[in-house]
Design a protein that fits this description.
3-stranded antiparallel beta sheet, alpha+beta, Arc Repressor Mutant, subunit A, elongated, single chain, about 120 residues
Length: about 120
């Protein structure tokens, strides 16, 4: 029988769906970061909503907001910090363990349905 799920690293900071989307997008940007506009489009957020989430992430040292001029136009680039990526990786590992425990706790019929769904989406 599986033990109690490990939720130690399920930080509320990342667990919010929009912040999860933001960090997922930034993590896949290969250290280059994303412009504010790119991040807004990818995450399907309004300017105000994205600003609010970025402020919370920046306050915790998860992201860095870089403002500069490129060809006389302002550009805001959002970059994940090393600390931010480390904390996000710990969050994902913990979430994976929680999901595995939940899957393992399901009756056999429901576990089989998950396997079928996984194959259908692969």
């Amino acid at each position: 029988m599986p033990g109690k799920p490990t939720t130690t690293n399920l930080e509320k900071l990342f667990h919010e769906p929009n912040r999860l989307a933001i960090l997922s997008a930034l993590a896949s940007a290969d250290g280059e970061g994303l412009s504010f506009s790119e991040l807004r489009v990818v995450c399907r957020l309004t300017d105000g909503n994205l600003n609010r989430h970025l402020a919370a992430l920046e306050e915790e040292g998860i992201v860095r907001v870089k403002k500069e001029f490129v060809d006389r136009k302002p550009r805001t680039t959002i970059l994940p910090t090393e600390k931010g990526l480390d904390r996000f990786a710990a969050y994902l590992a913990s979430l994976e363990r929680v999901l595995e425990d939940a899957r393992d706790a399901l009756p056999a019929r429901q576990r089989a349905q998950l396997v079928t769904l996984r194959r259908a989406t692969a």
